[in-house]
Amino acid sequence: MKKESTKIGFIGTGVMGNPMASHILKEGYELYVYNRTSAKTQSLVASGAHACDSPGSVAEMCDIIFAIVGFPKDVETVFLGSNGIVEKAKPGSIIVDMTTSTPDLAKKIASVAIKKGLHSLDAPVSGGDVGAKSGMLSIMVGGKKEIFNRVLPLFELMGSNVVYQGSAGSGQHTKMANQIGIASSMLAMCESLTYAKAAGLDQKTVLKSISSGAAGSWSLTNLAPRILRDDYEPGFFVRHFIKDMQIAIDSSEAMGIPIPGLKVAKAKFDQIADQGLDNKGTQAVIKAYE
Amino acid sequence: MKKESTKIGFIGTGVMGNPMASHILKEGYELYVYNRTSAKTQSLVASGAHACDSPGSVAEMCDIIFAIVGFPKDVETVFLGSNGIVEKAKPGSIIVDMTTSTPDLAKKIASVAIKKGLHSLDAPVSGGDVGAKSGMLSIMVGGKKEIFNRVLPLFELMGSNVVYQGSAGSGQHTKMANQIGIASSMLAMCESLTYAKAAGLDQKTVLKSISSGAAGSWSLTNLAPRILRDDYEPGFFVRHFIKDMQIAIDSSEAMGIPIPGLKVAKAKFDQIADQGLDNKGTQAVIKAYE
Questions:
Q1: Chain B touched by A172 (CB under 8 Å)
Q2: Is the CB of residue A103 less than 8 Å away from at least one CB of chain B?
Q3: Which residue of B has its CA nearest to A259?
């Protein structure tokens, strides 16, 4: 892929998309950007990116178009809506959704795209704004293997753990497996901390005993210390995690598999959202235990 | 503490106790041992330990007496029963229960011991037979701090993460916080793997994407690969983990704290125990999802 002749589009330049797009720009690619709130493209434009006024006007200029937006309905609008990516992209272009969205929508975009002579990938990420800034995201990719191979050099600018997972929708399914893993791990952390406190133990000293052993988890290492210093800033927003868990529940129920831990976790997060904590970080779920 | 003049007792020389006692023996202490099945003391006796015919006959010879047995009822027998440790130990001796048992029993032993002029510690461990062999256990200790300090050089022969947690019962409470953490982490692992399989993904490839990120846990790193190769050997026995979860549930309910994740996990483990898998490793809980 020649940087000089490959035009890259990036739609959604918020807390995740902005640093992700900046890695592509820094590498020397010609970059076209769009964001619903146009102010969020300014830093990229100041560094040489071209601002566009719609997803479609990005798409018609570019060879490879990435998007990372909010909810599945936003994905649908950006990709399949009027003046959207699929309508305007040139035949042969590659379109890549990096939003965490539904496996079914990823399959739908893939099937619509192929009829228009486009190639699509679903490539959701994990690693948060910290991973986006450092180019250390985990990127889970579904779609055709040869298309994955063509985009891989760009994925590697954004992520340090880029894994091809299978056909269209497999990236989203993998992300759901990831979110399901997070959900009950957070129950584990909350119940462990709650027990320790109720038993009159010093929670920080308990973490010394348990964090590095069989109870150890990313949550216990990274989120429990934030809870102990009453830091509920996001990290990862409660409202986004609730969205992800709902997709995972719907998808699990459609497949007929049991997810009792996930359901308990979702109920605990719903409880803190009802308390007005949906713009806090996911560690705020401890409040459902107080 | 002079090795030449300090006599150490060790009661319960099974899969955990045997290697733990061997570290003490190798360091040059005079060691007295007892096990219900006497054959399990043979390797220690061959290395210079003295075999005794009851917990009480160990206790009357020793200055510091450790025990690691099976269930709380065994702890009660060994410490508080006829010809047991408390009945026979010399005033001033230190008695240490390293079994995972109930916080209430730890407090009871402490209060009975003090009336007999004995000092007690509760010091359950985690890290399994591998940690016991390598002297890399996590040891969580409750009791008086000055007694902890006196036993610390011996704990450090058996463990690499020895932490004083507070008054009598605090070691057991910390172990419960640990087991609660494990319980829902195992739900997370099972539901994540089950989802991946149902979605038609390659589970091993999914682990590449998710093990090192926010869904990461000791279980996902250490137990999920065993599940993928159909290896259900213990590790940590299902029946022992069920015992621990029951203690944690009883203790949580006595304190009036919510533990919905723990209860779901316990139900899943009960289900596989009913299927006859109680002598398998805890990773066999995936069978409750098949």
A1: no
A2: yes
A3: B191
Q: Are residues B57 and B151 in the same domain?
A: yes
- Longest C-alpha distance within chain B, in Å? 65
Q: What pLDDT is attached to residue B1?
A: 62
**What is the secondary structure of A131-190 as a DSSP string?**
HHHHT-EEEEEEE-HHHHHHHHHHHHHHEEEEEEEESTTHHHHHHHHHHHHHHHHHHHHH
State whether residue A202 is helix, strand or coil: coil
Which residue, of A119, A150, A167, is where some domain finishes?
A: A167
CB-based contact B213 A268, cutoff 8 Å: no
Q: What confidence tier does B222 reach under pLDDT thresholds 50, 70, 90? A: very high
Cβ-nearest to A188 among B173, B181, B252: B181
Query: Looking at the domain assignment, is residue B236 inside a domain?
Result: yes
In this structure, the answer to whether residues A102 and A60 fall within a common structural domain is yes
A22 and A154 part of one domain:
yes
Report the CATH number that the domain containing residue A19 is assigned in CATH. Answer: 3.40.50.720
Q: Look at residues A103, A97, A50, A52 and name the one whose alpha carbon lies nearest to residue A77.
A: A97
- A55 and A158, same domain (yes or no): yes
Q: Active-site residue among A88, A107, A108, A175? A: A175
Structural domain contains residue A253: yes
* Rounded distance between C-alpha atoms, residue A221 and residue B189, angstroms: 17
pTM: 0.95
A209–B140 CB contact, under 8 Å: yes
Question: Are residues A161 and A211 located together in one domain of the fold?
Answer: no
Q: How far is A11 from chain B (nearest CA, A)?
A: 24
Are A215 and B182 an interchain contact pair (Cβ–Cβ within 8 Å)? yes
Note down the domain range covering B198: 173-289
B127-156 residues touching A, CB cutoff 8 A? 127-128, 138, 140
Write out pLDDT tens, residues A138-197.
999 999 999 999 999 999 999 999 999 999 999 999 999 999 999 999 999 999 999 999
Instruction: Tell me how many residue pairs between chain A and chain B have CB atoms under 8 A apart.
Output: 267
Structurally, how many domains does chain B consist of? 2
pLDDT band for position B5 (cuts 50, 70, 90): confident
B1 lies in some domain = no
**Are residues B38 and B63 both part of a single domain?**
yes
Q: Counting every residue, how long is chain A?
A: 290
Q: Nearest CA of chain A to the CA of B174: how many Å?
A: 6
Token look-up 């009945």 returns B87
Taking CB atoms and an 8 Å cutoff, what residues of chain B touch A254? none
pLDDT tens string B89-128:
999 999 999 999 999 999 999 999 999 999 999 999 999 8
Whether A138 and B214 have beta carbons less than 8 Å apart is answered as no
Which B residues, 25 through 64, put their C-beta within 8 Å of a C-beta on chain A? Answer: none
- A188: chain B residues, CB-CB within 8 Å: 180-185, 187-188, 217, 261
Q: Domain holding A272: CATH number? A: 1.10.1040.10
Is B73 designated active site?
A: no
- For residues B187 and B274, membership in a common domain is answered with yes
| Structural domain contains residue A281 | yes
Looking at A133, A167, A201, which one is the last position of a domain?
A: A167
